[in-house]
Write a structure and sequence with these properties.
The protein is an all-alpha fold. The protein has one domain. It is 76% helix and 0% strand. The chain is built from 5 helices and no strands. Helix 1 crosses helix 3 and helix 3 runs antiparallel to helix 4. It is elongated. The termini are far apart.
């Protein structure tokens, strides 16, 4: 049985069958949802083979949140200007 088939009952059929290449924007909610789905799958299989993906999603969520913070964005702009001026 494919992982997608095992997790489908946890998500509801319509969500489980949604294509991965859709055009919806990436949001914190989507990343959090992916983390929840992955955590459930890892618990269901009791196997850590998805750990690299879990790590990646956690990093992506942190970056997404940081990029939305106006102070962080301002600092990045100033840092980029400093690098360009060198």
């Amino acid at each position: 049985m494919k992982p997608r088939d095992r997790i489908a009952p946890l998500l509801g059929q319509s969500r489980a069958l949604r294509r991965l290449d859709d055009d919806r924007p990436i949001t914190a909610e989507r990343i959090e949802h992916a983390l929840i789905v992955l955590a459930r799958l890892m618990e269901l299989e009791n196997e850590p083979r998805y750990a690299p993906l879990l790590d990646r999603l956690e990093r992506e969520l942190a970056v997404y949140r940081q990029e939305r913070d106006p102070i962080s964005r301002a600092r990045r702009i100033l840092r980029d200007l400093t690098i360009d001026a060198s």
